Amino acid sequence: MARWQPNASERLAVAALDLFAERGYENTTVIDIARRAGLTKSTFFRHFQDKREVLFGGDMMTGLVVEAIAAAPANATPLEAVACVLDAAGRDVFTPARREFVARRRAVIAANPELQEREALKGLGLTASMTGALKRRGFPDVTSSVAAELGALASKIAYERWSDTDSGDDFGELARRALGEVQAASAVF
Amino acid sequence: MARWQPNASERLAVAALDLFAERGYENTTVIDIARRAGLTKSTFFRHFQDKREVLFGGDMMTGLVVEAIAAAPANATPLEAVACVLDAAGRDVFTPARREFVARRRAVIAANPELQEREALKGLGLTASMTGALKRRGFPDVTSSVAAELGALASKIAYERWSDTDSGDDFGELARRALGEVQAASAVF
């Protein structure tokens, strides 16, 4: 497995996860997180607007979604364009080297209502970005919304399967399989 | 139009909306809200866990979702069961007498990130409740998830159309029409 070389924002996220696990989310300050990562408070705030945001990587995912859809082949259907987002997530975000980190992060979020709320709003934002990027390809509004919702659902299913067990499965493959299941289920309606 | 007789929890919500509009969300306390509604702080906390929750009616919507799906006809398809939820929302929640209140509430939430986060998590919870209720009717897991997501999307589309303009349209009718559009879009994939 390739060694993961975290950048400043990922070092802060790892430090935050460690501290949240050791002493609880409420008892951890931004200064604690920066110090643990060997960085300063002002570096923290260059990357993240507040303590919660440290687990959500700023707006990195939004860029990934928008770029993946813009770069999809010209003749891609809405769901094929969405599949390009899932591929990109597997290639750039949910990599084998990050699996353990993602599983720990998921457990911390599940234990904290404030983090769950932030995650929920981030999810809505990503789905809205996906919808907007599909509309810009010329798909009708409702078609774009439905494709984005089905893509978000496939991503959620794959994310849970991928982070639950260390099966060695590739996120992109799990996500394409989940998208196929979602598509098959919606075709019956 | 029937006169709307708010109960304690709705009086608190109306008082909160008035105060948020007058002096801002941050500058309004739970005590202010209770006083404006002619109630006490302890009555507030019997209904709501915190200040944000006053705009989300506790867990009332969850009960509505679960009961509407359980009460759907025995031979209902997943989307027909979801349509029963939309009908119930139009009958019991998004009534003509509440339209102005809902439109004001929507504007206040849109202006406040904390409220947006709470709304996002509430939305996920409702979709999860809908998924669970569909599974209990014996539908497969992914089918239940897809039907719930499409229902949530139809509800969101209808909610925006219904609260945007005072067209006199019935929420349940708008929602069934939106569900039809969503279903037609997903059938193309």
Give your account of this protein's structure.
- The structure is a homodimer of 189-residue chains.
- With 189 residues, chain A is mainly alpha-helical.
- Helices cover 70% and strands 0% of the residues of chain A.
- The first copy, chain A, is built from nine helices and no strands.
- In chain A, helix 5 runs antiparallel to helix 9.
- The longest helix of chain A is centred in the middle third of the chain and has 24 residues.
- Chain A is elongated, with a radius of gyration of 17 Å.
- The model of chain A has no long low-confidence stretch (mean pLDDT 92).
- The interface between A and B is medium-sized, with 31 and 31 residues.
Secondary structure topology:
2 copies of one chain form a homodimer.
Chain A: H1 8-23, H2 30-36, H3 41-47, H4 60-70, H5 78-92, H6 99-110, H7 113-136, H8 141-164, H9 171-187
Helix pairs in contact in A: 1-2, 1-6, 4-5, 4-7, 5-8, 5-9, 7-8, 8-9
* Major beta-sheet overview of chain A: none
The number of strands of chain A is 0
Greatest interface (CB-CB under 8 A), with counts per chain: A-B, 31 and 31 residues
Mean pLDDT of chain A: 92
Structural class of chain A: mainly alpha
In whole angstroms, how far apart are the ends of chain A? 43 Å
- The helix content of chain A is over 70%
Unreliable stretches covering 5 or more consecutive residues of chain A: none
Task: Assign an overall shape of chain A.
Answer: elongated
String of helices and strands of chain A:
HHHHHHHHH
Return Rg of chain A in Å: 17 Å
Oligomer: homodimer
Number of helices of chain A: 9
Give the percentage of residues in beta strands of chain A.
Answer: under 5%
